[in-house]
Amino acid sequence: DAKTTQPNSMESNEEEPVHLPCNHSTISGTDYIHWYRQLPSQGPEYVIHGLTSNVNNRMASLAIAEDRKSSTLILHRATLRDAAVYYCILRDPEGSARQLTFGSGTQLTVLP
Amino acid sequence: DGGITQSPKYLFRKEGQNVTLSCEQNLNHDAMYWYRQDPGQGLRLIYYSQIVNDFQKGDIAEGYSVSREKKESFPLTVTSAQKNPTAFYLCASSVDRVPYDYGYTFGSGTRLTVV
To answer: How confident is the model at residue B37 (pLDDT cuts 50, 70, 90)?
Structure first.
């Protein structure tokens, strides 16, 4: 399985942009990059996913490096409600083991 | 609104008992999944099902069983053979349309405690 590496924790100030990095140097051509976040005692929430091109939605933006060996989740204006564990996950929808495999994620703290 | 409903939210089990956790979705998703989460850790896959009447073991299937008789439902039974069942259990679903990829939708979880 292709693996991802994320910092254990990050801090951000409220109302400032947040850039959450993820390294995936062994990514394959058919792996999609997924981001989920989880608040305490809740189920994970889908944030965004992409394959090659940068992606934007109402929650965040996903910037994918040209060689696809790294990506960055961008929260444009952090709020206190964005404090959560953020998971970066690779998924091959055509692979024999194409289920989401969660690592330990990045704990984002948002300071008021 | 479409979504996934897990019940109950909290469940207490005596040692030696089997318990069943419910998961229902009205999203018309093909695939469904069960994950387990222990305190301070990431999610681990227990079982998954890509179509009705078919399911596959995940990384930690021992002591668990599932069924998929209907597209909307994927109940998980925690049997007495599961040595350490106290955990947070999460159900998820997704569209399965290879080669395209879609995000997962998760339920709000069931917290199981053995007493």
So the answer is: very high
| Model pLDDT for residues A22-78, shown as the tens digit of each residue | 999 999 888 999 999 999 889 999 999 999 999 999 999 999 999 999 999 999 999
Sign (positive/negative) of CA torsion B101, B53, B59, A104?
positive
User: Distance between CA atoms of B63 and B68, rounded to whole angstroms?
Assistant: 18
Mutate to test the interface with B, among A100, A104, A106 (most CBs of B within 10 A): A100
Taking an 8 Å cut-off on Cβ atoms, the answer to whether A41 and B109 are in contact is yes
The two beta strands, B43-51 and B105-106, are: unpaired
Q: What is the SS3 assignment for A26?
A: coil
Positive or negative, the CA dihedral B81, B83, B86, B91 is negative
Query: Could you write out the DSSP letters of every residue in B29-75?
Result: -SEEEEEEE-TTS-EEEEEEEEETTEEEE-TT-TTEEE--SBTTB--
- Whether the bond into A40 is cis, omega within 30 of 0: no
Q: Given an 8 Å threshold on Cβ–Cβ distance, is B109 in contact with A43?
A: yes
Q: DSSP secondary structure string, A41-57?
A: TS--EEEEEESSS-EE-
Spell out which residues of chain B touch residue A87, defining contact as CB-CB under 8 Å. 42
